Amino acid sequence: MEHITLLIGIVIVTALVFDFTNGFHDTANAMATTISTGALRPKTAVAMSAVLNLVGAFLSVEVAKTISGGIIDESAGIRPEVIFAGLVGAIVWNLVTWLAGLPSSSSHALFGGLIGATVVSVGTGGVHGDAVVMKVLIPAVAAPFVAGLAAMAATRLTYRLTRGRDEADTAKGYRAGQIASAALVSLAHGTNDAQKTMGVITLALITGGVVAPHADPPLWVIASAGLAIALGTYLGGWRIIRTMGKGITDIQPPQGFAAQTSAAATILASSHLGFALSTTQVCSGSVMGSGLGRKGGVVRWSTAGRMVLAWGLTLPAAGAVAAGAAFLTKQGSWGVAAVAILGLGVCGAIWAASRRKPIDHSNVNDGPAAEPVGVVTAALKTVSPPPAGSVTAQATAADAAEASAPAARTKAATATTR
Q1: What are the residues facing 72 on neighbouring strands?
Q2: Rounded-to-integer distance, Cα 296 and Cα 383, Å
Q3: Is residue 330 part of a domain?
Q4: CA distance 121 to 79
Q5: Less CB within 10 Å around the terminal CB: N or C of the chain?
């Protein structure tokens, strides 16, 4: 570390700031359904997730290698200023989507930022297009569908297995299962997302000549990235937790268990293969799949549509911000300082805007404001069978009304005679 220059030090600090925003932006991935069903108290849930994110950061470095030596060509003249600009673009987009309560991809914000800054600085030759397609774009499209289909199948299976059993008893078991599966998602998140920051810091160290090309992340890089994402996770991205837990579909304990188990399996498999996929897209897809898997459960497609739009905009939007930042950093030291000042100003403005309608652990389960029912949602409601138990409840109410009707008529007749 004795050869780290001031600029590389700034890049490392900025990377850890991104890691911090990644933590609170993605807390919802592991804990939104657990919090929404009441399986864990909000503060307890984020504390457990933070610890397991830290543990997961030490389990693998395959994704970090994809970032540091796979997407960007480190030998193409990439300078630390380029990485700094890419990180600024990713941080700004993360905060914009956090303010809107949209669970967009921190991973794709990082990829978009790095690609946009690299293209402006050294041209398209600095980007490994085949790696972007194979390890970023294809997993981005496939992962939500895979996780969604798995969650839909798992949800239907869980309801089939517990058919005819007391809902209160099964709910207790599924809440325990939710806690276990949420812990697994948190661990998986640490193995995937914390590594992305490790890869960025390692890339900065390589460009600065501090470590050799294609080197594994040093231990201090692994530890600092794990601590940063854990701290961000503990603070909790309550706005996105509300959207994920209440805004997409109404989640019951069996659905939460199925969604989290499917997401964890998908994330862990991708981490083993070195796919730097979006854990946000995986978890969002699994929540939507669980909504489709329960009879009577309807996905709020207007919310889902805004999420998908944010997913599509993330790469180009973060890339555009990073490209502008990279253009300034090319002007020299004053350009780097200007990017830093502008970035701090934008982040401060977003934080101030969030204080107008604060969301925290005390009101995260109040649910989003009611929104108009869309065409798709209305159509699905007309053809979907009612939720389990509603028919029985309606029949019981009807029987009670019918049984009380003769007594009511007798009482009315007596009153008339008097």
Answers
A1: 127
A2: 9
A3: yes
A4: 9
A5: C
